[in-house]
Amino acid sequence: MNGKIKIEDYTIKDIIDYRSISWPNSKDFLFLTDIPMKFESDFVRPDYYCFGMISQGQLEININTKLYKLSPNDIMVYRPGQIWKVAKVAEETTGNFVLFTKRFLDSLNENIFSVKKHSFLSNGIQSAIELNKFDYERIKTLFTEIFTILNHLSKPIWEQVARNLTSALIYECDYMLSGYINVDEVVANREDDLFDQFNQLLAIHFKIDRKPDFYASHLCITTHHLYSIVKKKSGKTPSQLIGEQVMREARYQVAYTLTSFTEIASNLNFSDPFTFSKYFKKNTGYPPLHFRKNELKKFP
Q1: What is the mean pLDDT of the chain?
Q2: Does residue 255 share a domain with residue 152?
Q3: Whole-prediction pTM value?
């Protein structure tokens, strides 16, 4: 069907396979010090967390359609459900990045997700935080020391120790970053972030799916939660915003192109031209043919 754009769900194994990284240790955990020059050409949606910093070179990454140009003072984080794409990596860029799934830490009795309601990993907190020189050096040293230990672990105990070291890294980074984060703004930012993500998904997928639960699923929230956020931020329901997006595109294709109504119906994922015509008339008051003729009269 025409017009389909799909953002692939992405795993740590996908990262390893795409970049041809030698990593036999875990499909739920990965750490990087050399930044591969090969990167994905399209946006992807991770099922894992990633955070870290560069120590030299240049890295530009697009997270939820916002471009971040990382300098060595910045710590970067993206979360499951967000979309990202590397825009640029300069040669010989190095740094420290850790990637892990929530389930990697869930086997620990206590972890950042069970102990804290909000941390720097929470949605609603900015994706790049500029550090002062002192905090940058502290976090850089912490990464280096933990990665050094990980490189020298015995295989039988590797994964359990890696879980605990990753947990220690997260807790310490969260403590050091607490002065950069206003927790009172997290909930509001989280709602803004979800509303922005909904609109981004809508712009991409409105031709494919018109059901609110499709978008809620992609945002990893309930349909009721999506309804509450969208209603609060826009005064409209998700279904209304989806319908408006569909109708903007339908009116454009009917009025300003010579595309057949059968093809328009297919482009917008209607089951048949009759269903599309009925939907179009319900929302404009005119069947598509009448609407097109009226628009053509305006431009003799």
Answers
A1: 88
A2: no
A3: 0.64
